Amino acid sequence: MMLDWNAYQSAVTAGVAGIGKTNPAIVRGYRELSNAGESGVLDRKTRELIALAVSVTRQCDGCITIHTDAAIQHGATREEIVEALGVAISVNAGAALVYSTRALDAYQAKTTP
What we know:
Blueprint: H1 5-22, H2 24-36, H3 44-58, H4 61-73, H5 78-111
Helix pairs in contact: 1-2, 3-4, 3-5
């Protein structure tokens, strides 16, 4: 295990609570934003699996621990989590491939008179 994820989640939760005590509107606004897209079409497990894949893409350890926990609480299995992570891996690789064309376009623009 690379990190004590349970202790880290507690630390993140405490840190967010501290921000909420200082300025409750920030945390309230975040919660409203988090729930804004929830229409009931996707079940909670699916939403948490998507959130976990995005967390990996954004490289946010706090998001990873929170959404891993929520995915488990909503019934996600290890296999489902691994598949969601596989999607994140493939999209990130695809994005790097697509953005590589932009680098070559920039090269072309800078070297063509």
